[in-house]
């Protein structure tokens, strides 16, 4: 029996207009009423998903989210952090040096703030436009304080150029960090071993839920670990081929209530 549903947002729960369909909303609300934990699992900070949590009525005591691609496990009603894994300032500075070499923009997220680092002289970051609900600061990497929390480093830029530069990232960097594309115009760097599956496994352990009792639904590269981890791993019809290949189930697309259909079939009584 499924006791926890972890759901990606973009390309999964949200349609192309960043909306939650009525059928998806009703299915998830019914699952919650049935006692199932409905957990949004995203690369975004909690602040950036609050409108969706409100829409889904997931801001009560006992509601949780996985944010920063597994870097934080949080209580939705208070924002309290239950589990965390973050980068050191030295990691941020090392990655900024890489961005300078590759002539890429780069920013770092700290809680609900995006710190714009601006290492490229030729390419301006698109990340603040991708996450308009976040606070913004500008800083130089060398001036970042040691004692501040750094959740992840991001590169938001046009996909054609971004994809060409991604090919140039050294193998040593990939061995040191999780390097994942979460959208066509967004590349993210996380501490090694920190994935959505990591965050979900910690939350499941805290709640006394077995791995076999978890359903995970996603579509992109950063969803691969959680779909592989889940008792029932679900790929959207619009998912990348690698996600479909490892999924237990392929549901309809994010434009056709795919989340609702798989929840109705495997979870609702």
UniProtKB/TrEMBL annotation:
Keywords: Hydrolase. InterPro entries: Cof, HAD-like_sf, HAD-SF_hydro_IIB, HAD_sf. The keyword RNA-binding does not apply. Gene3D superfamilies: 3.30.1240.10, HAD superfamily/HAD-like (3.40.50.1000). GO terms for cellular component: cytosol. It comes from the Bacteria. The keyword Hydrolase applies. GO terms for molecular function: magnesium ion binding; phosphatase activity. SUPFAM superfamilies: HAD-like. NCBIfam families: Cof-subfamily, HAD-SF-IIB. This is HAD superfamily hydrolase. It comes from Enterococcus saccharolyticus subsp. saccharolyticus ATCC 43076.
